[in-house]
Write a structure and sequence with these properties.
Helices cover about 30% and strands about 20% of the residues. It is α/β, with parallel strands linked by helices and about 350 residues long. The protein has two domains: about 5-190 and about 245-335, Aminopeptidase (3-Layer(aba) Sandwich), CATH 3.40.630.10; about 195-240, no CATH class. Strand 1 (about 50-55) and strand 2 (about 60-65) form a beta hairpin. Helix 4 (about 115-130) crosses helix 10 and helix 8 crosses helix 10 (about 315-335). The longest helix has 18 residues, at about 315-335.
């Protein structure tokens, strides 16, 4: 990158680009480098840092800013460290260079999904600490692995562990999506994913030979799953890798203190909110399943939805505006008055 472009760059943008260059790309993410990066942030910000290995090589990093009233439940700011694979030939720039063009667009895998949010959390906390603020509720930032492949060795395991229980999370923020309009999308629930693995056994051989009882021949798609397997004959089974049947919904009623705090800040900042059900699945589902209300929110408006796409990018001004938004949201959420059962 030309040196003159680096001159005068906002330090938060520089940090964002540094994080984008860490190759936490599936299927072999460099999680060690990401954890080291986060440990360094914790040290610089004076935050507590806990590393919880939920599976071999799968570490959840928790950065903590203690509140003034430990009896209150905490605010959990969640983000995932992994990113989806890339096809470099379809990118205008190296997806792990964090190239910034002359217009201010930053290209990189994870620019929208969701390394931007991770740094926005960190930089909002940094600003608030520098300004000398203290809040009643503890703020935990959790950085989890493997979200992009289902969270099975990430948040799914973490919520079952005593280290998670000890966080005493009362409310959580997690990822959302960009919005190409003036509005900001906020997600209060998700679709229920069903991931099915079908196994079919049979005689091997080239398909052109019309071999009887081949594995492929036995897979019929005219009936529902159980019917398919019964009709296919012996040796055909299926199992669910995921099966969610009761999606949890986070309240968006003005009487809910968490929603009131969140939406109140957005109203004060003249941000138009569009509450929706997330079209896919995020780690929020694991949080909601254990009773922690969560909103999916990535503060990116006037921005095309480019997660998992070629040339994933985010404008630096949009990124910086997101830090401003979190700098307003965190005090409100971390200062929600004492709730029933917390006194």
């Amino acid at each position: 990158m030309a040196s003159k472009r680096r001159e005068g760059e906002h330090p938060s943008v520089t940090l964002f680009r540094q994080y984008l260059r860490i190759r936490t790309v599936q299927p072999e993410p460099d999680y060690g480098a990401a954890v080291a990066f986060l440990e360094e942030r914790a040290c610089q910000l004076g935050l507590g840092c806990q590393k919880v290995e939920v599976a071999a090589g799968r570490v959840v990093t928790v950065l903590t800013w203690p509140g003034t009233n430990p009896r209150l439940s905490s605010l959990l700011l969640n983000s995932h460290t992994d990113v989806v694979p890339v096809f470099k030939e379809h990118w205008s720039h190296d997806p792990f260079e964090a190239f910034k063009d002359a217009d201010g667009y930053i290209y990189g895998r994870g620019a929208q999904d969701m390394k931007c949010v991770s740094i926005q959390y960190l930089e909002a906390v940094r600003r608030l600490k520098v300004e000398g603020h203290h809040f009643p509720r503890t703020i935990h930032m959790t950085f989890v692995p493997d979200e992009e492949i289902g969270g099975h060795q990430g948040m799914e395991l973490f919520v079952k562990r005593p280290e998670f229980q000890a966080l005493r999370a009362g409310f959580a923020l997690d990822e959302g999506l960009a919005n190409p309009t003036d509005a900001f999308t906020v997600f209060y629930s998700e679709r229920s994913p069903w991931w099915v693995q079908v196994t079919s056994t049979g005689k091997p051989g080239h398909g052109s030979r019309f071999i009887e009882d081949t594995a492929a021949e036995k897979l019929a798609f005219e009936e529902q799953l159980q019917g398919w397997c019964q009709a296919a004959g012996e040796g055909v089974t299926f199992e669910f890798a995921q099966k969610w049947t009761e999606p949890q919904v986070t309240s968006t009623d003005d009487s809910d203190p968490w929603w009131a705090a969140f939406s109140g800040v957005c109203k004060d900042m003249n941000l138009t909110l569009e509450p929706e059900i997330f079209p896919a699945a995020t780690d929020s589902r694991y949080l909601r399943a254990v009773g922690v209300p969560a909103l999916g929110f990535s503060p990116m408006n006037h921005t095309p939805v480019l997660l998992h796409d070629h040339d994933e990018r985010l404008h630096e001004a949009t990124f910086l505006r997101g830090i401003d938004i979190y700098t307003r949201l965190l005090p409100a959420l971390a200062s929600v008055p004492t709730l029933p059962g917390e006194s």
